[in-house]
Specification:
Number of strands: 5
Number of domains: 1
Shape: globular
Distance between the termini: 45 Å
Strand content: 5-15%
Number of helices: 10
Helix content: 55-70%
Structural class: mainly alpha
Protein name: Peptidase MA-like domain-containing protein
Strand order of the largest sheet: 1-3-2
Radius of gyration: 18 Å
Length: about 250
């Protein structure tokens, strides 16, 4: 696809997102294009075909799109949710933008999975599914477990946390898993917890993990979003101190 074709596709997705989320509009954003760096992707443990960034100083949202990858609707909806959350909860506030990182990854994962499951609206009523329903080339059960396994793999790396960006990415993946799990908890008729959280507990502490594990469930109101800032920073500060202590 050409850049013009991609931009037209993104604009179509934007219209669908506004309807799906039942909002009046999405904040203005700039589209930038990039190519995936294989070495950086290998170092991070995964590659992303789209990314959303926000400049708190210029109040500018940027949607980065990989020109050489497929651009599924659910991935763009995920990034649109980051843009929307940032505008709502962290506008021109660098501290809030950092602290929002956990919640917005959780929320974006919720929206993404609802799209993958075929929901008509974020406010859909009487929505339900089974964990063995097919989504893409897999099932919801396998998708959920793969999200958890990615967290485990990243935290199990001998160089974890390799740097601050790797730390932020890994914790973001944890919140992504919580977002996927929350949809399963709310709407899957046969959901059961099947994962081993040992490595996550080791990295976070049992008390902190249990606090966040029980908190990250359901759709959040504004007060819960604000509370999520506190729990996210409870994870980040000790790990940052541990990271800097290695240097």
């Amino acid at each position: 696809m050409t850049e013009i074709q991609i931009k037209n596709l993104i604009k179509e997705y934007e219209k669908e997102y506004i309807e799906f989320m039942e909002i009046e509009k999405l904040p203005q954003y700039k589209i930038d294009f990039f190519e995936i760096n294989v070495e950086e992707s290998d170092a991070a443990g995964f590659a992303s075909a789209a990314q959303a960034y926000y400049n708190t100083k210029t109040d500018e949202h940027i949607l980065r799109i990989c020109k050489s990858s497929e651009i599924p609707r659910y991935i763009v909806f995920h990034e649109f949710t980051h843009i929307l959350d940032t505008e709502m909860y962290a506008k021109q506030d660098s501290w809030k933008y950092m602290a929002l990182s956990g919640y917005t990854e959780y929320h974006a994962a919720q929206v993404e999975l609802m799209i993958m499951l075929g929901a008509d609206s974020i406010q859909t009523q009487d929505f339900s599914f089974t964990v063995d329903v097919e989504i893409g080339n897999s099932t919801d059960r396998n998708y959920l477990n793969s999200r958890h396994q990615l967290v485990v793999n990243m935290m199990n790396r001998t160089d974890f946390p390799r740097d601050i960006e790797a730390l932020k990415t890994t914790v973001g993946v944890l919140y992504n898993y919580f977002g996927v799990r929350s949809i399963c908890k709310m709407y899957a008729k046969d959901y059961t917890e099947e994962v081993d959280n040992t490595i996550i507990i080791q990295k976070l502490s049992k008390v902190l993990f249990e606090e966040i594990n029980s908190f990250m469930v359901g759709w959040f109101n504004e007060a819960q979003v604000e509370l999520s800032f506190v729990s996210y920073m409870k994870i980040m500060w000790p790990m940052l101190q541990s990271y800097f202590g290695k240097e």
